[in-house]
Amino acid sequence: MRLLILGGTKNLGRHVAEAALAAGHELTLFNRGRTNPTLFPEAIHLQGERSAPDALASGEWDAVIDMSGFLVHDLRRSAELLRDRVGHYTFMSSIAVYASRTTPGMTEDAPQLAWPDGAPEDEFTMDLYGPSKARAEALLAETFGERTTAVRSGFVVGPYNPDFGNWGEALAAGKPLECAARPGQPIQYLDARDLAAFLLRVTVDGRGGAFNAVSESTTMAELAEAWRSVVPGSPPVDWEPAVDRFHLPHDGSNDGTFLLDNSRALAAGLAVRPAAESARACMEWIQAGNTPPPPPH
Ligand SMILES: NC(=O)c1ccc[n+]([C@@H]2O[C@H](COP(=O)([O-])OP(=O)(O)OC[C@H]3O[C@@H](n4cnc5c(N)ncnc54)[C@H](OP(=O)(O)O)[C@@H]3O)[C@@H](O)[C@H]2O)c1
Question: What is the pLDDT of residues 79-104, one digit of tens each?
Answer without folding.
Answer: 999 999 999 999 999 999 999 999 99
